[in-house]
Amino acid sequence: MKKIDLFPTPLVKFNLENSDKLNSGLVDYVKTMKDDTVDGKKQPYSMVGGKHTDFSLFLDWETGKRKDKFVEEFYTKICDLIMEYGEKYIDKHFKDTHAPGTRITPWAMIYGPNDYSKVHNHPGIDLAIVYYPKVPKTSDTNGNIEFIDPRPCSTWDFNNNHKTSQSFKPEEGSGFIFPAWLQHGTTPHREDDERICIAINVKFHRSP
Hints:
By secondary structure, the protein is an alpha+beta fold. It has helices at about 20-30, 55-65, 70-90, 95, and strands spanning about 10-15, 35-40, 40, 45-50, 50, 105-110, 115, 125-135, 145-150, 165-170, 175-180, 185, 195-205. The strands form four sheets. It has a six-stranded antiparallel sheet with strand order 1-11-8-13-6-5. A three-stranded antiparallel sheet has the order 10-9-12, with no helix packed on it. The longest helix is centred in the middle third of the chain and has 22 residues, at about 70-90.
């Protein structure tokens, strides 16, 4: 008897080693970023409460408007992660076929007491990345990121002890890479101290 798991969904966890200084620098920078607003009202993003920044984290550094060594270091590490992921899980020729012209769009979210993100995905995007430069110590499922089983009929699965969602506690200096179509959200953040997440959309270049 052999069990075959069909249609797996890749979720990759990563850790940035010795990231204390990087995290501190990113937190300071994120707090200077502008809210993404239109006519004084928050954009219709998934976030409920908190602060959703604009999308200039890498843009400012790339255009030379606001040079910051911590943003530069983080940008380099994220590019390396995307390259590693692409070559391992997409195409061993990823560097030559997909990497040129790949678009990377980051923003940050600052969660205060009772703030959370509704379940959502990122239409038209290939990969989503989340990274946590600041996470206060929490208990239980406080502030967890949750991923929803993308198979609509999975709730009817009586073959084994099946969960329709998986929950992970954020850890400072770590993050996740996953397909952007995968539904995800967070449980409410219950701490007085804020939690900061940097999210990144990755859109691959496709050769004709």
